[in-house]
Amino acid sequence: MDKVHVGILIGSIRKGSFTRQVANNVIKMLPEWMEAQILDISGLPLYNQDFDDGGVAPEAYHAFRALAQKQDAFLFLTPEHNRSVPAALKNAIDVGSRPIAESVWSGKPGAVISVSPGAIAGFGANHHLRQSMTFLNVYMMQQPECYLGGITKCLDDEGNIIRDATNEFLSKVVEAYAFWVRRFVGEQ
Questions:
Q1: What sections of 12-163 are H helices per DSSP?
Q2: d(CA 188, CA 128)
Q3: pLDDT given for residue 138 in this prediction
Q4: Does the pLDDT of residue 188 top 70, yes or no?
Q5: Displacement of CA 113 from its chain's centroid (Å)
Q6: Which residue intervals of 40-163 are DSSP H helices?
Q7: C-alpha–C-alpha distance, residues 108 and 126, integer Å
Q8: CA-to-CA distance for 14 and 74, rounded, in angstroms?
Q9: Cβ count within 10 A of residue 163
Q10: pLDDT of 2
């Protein structure tokens, strides 16, 4: 059986990002039949439709779209900025969704994990992201929803999750995600 390719999009481009640390933990939990690849969004110029309309889209657009198109499923991990997704993640979503007839997202399964030092745990970002991805025809996993609050108390200095309850919960989320992806991707 071929591996199922899972594109991991991390909303925070900050060095030392808590969200990236959680993503690294989640990647280790994925079953063997899934192959995860972090899709770097940090170098994408702001989306401008004039680039596509004029046939002069930046190489970074082409490279991102080609890599995302090869993915069978997506897993979004995001912090919350002003009750929504960070600009870098929204930009990547926009770049991947254009040209409209060539969206890299359409028809693929996905899920979202929001991460925050605060108690609200990225609820706003989680739901804004779900709304955008549902519009783009990504089959977003409904349950379990995953909001990780108080994340600074869950990670050690190396970025490992040290709270058993958090590890157990994430394991259940990953297991549900794998089941969700299998429903859409099937045997490879």
A1: 18-29, 49-53, 59-69, 87-96, 123-135
A2: 31
A3: 97
A4: no
A5: 8
A6: 49-53, 59-69, 87-96, 123-135
A7: 18
A8: 21
A9: 14
A10: 87
List pLDDT tens digits, range 98-131. Answer: 998 999 999 999 999 999 988 888 899 999 999 9
* Tally of CB atoms within 10 A around 17: 17
Q: Taking the complete model, does pTM exceed 0.90, yes or no?
A: yes
- Whether 12 and 40 have beta carbons less than 8 Å apart is answered as no
Which contiguous run of DSSP H or E holds residue 101?
none
pLDDT at 120: 83
Eight-class DSSP state of 26: H
Confidence of residue 187 (pLDDT cuts 50, 70, 90): low
Task: Return the H-helix or E-strand segment holding 172.
Answer: helix 164-185
Coil, helix or strand at residue 22: helix
HSE toward the beta carbon, residue 73, CA cutoff 13 A: 28
Tokens representing residue 185 in the block: 């991707």
- Asked if 72 contacts 185 with a C-beta cutoff of 8 angstroms, the reply is yes
Which amino acid, 123?
A: F
